[in-house]
Amino acid sequence: MSYPQAFRYSKEHEWVRLDEDGTAVVGVTHFAQEQLGDIVYLALPEPGTSVVQFAKLGEVESVKAVSDIFSPLGGTVLEVNKEAVDHPEVVNQEPHGRGWLVKLKPGDLGGVRNLMTAQEYEAFLAADGTKRH
């Protein structure tokens, strides 16, 4: 698995993509969805909710467990991916595309410095003893 170069990644296996309009799109990585197994439910914050970098953003329920999702950036939730909420399997199918979770208005773009590049994330996975897919 090659991770998108334009994204930034957290140690908790979330990604963020900064769009040209300043919006931050957030999702979970391919590795995360693979570890979770089949995702059956997402609990995500309502638009207007303030989130803090690396704090709990929501929950994902899979056939294996319920796990917390953490926000890779702080800011305000602008939009929740209705397709992913209604059809959580899209997160398994396209975690870096249609399976995004929320869009944020970032509070401070300086928080991006606390995240890993794709190359750093792949090295993090390798150092953690996980297989790269």
Compact description:
The chain has 133 residues and is an alpha+beta fold. It has helices at 30-36, 82-86, 89-93, 118-127; strands at 8-9, 14-18, 24-28, 39-43, 50-51, 56-62, 66-70, 75-80, 102-106.
Can you walk me through this structure?
The chain has 133 residues and is an alpha+beta fold. Helix content is 20%, strand content 32%. It has 4 helices and 9 strands. It has helices at 30-36, 82-86, 89-93, 118-127, and strands at 8-9, 14-18, 24-28, 39-43, 50-51, 56-62, 66-70, 75-80, 102-106. It starts with 7 loop residues before the first strand and ends in a 6-residue tail after the last helix.
Which characteristics define this entry?
alpha+beta; OB fold (Dihydrolipoamide Acetyltransferase, E2P); 6-stranded antiparallel beta sheet
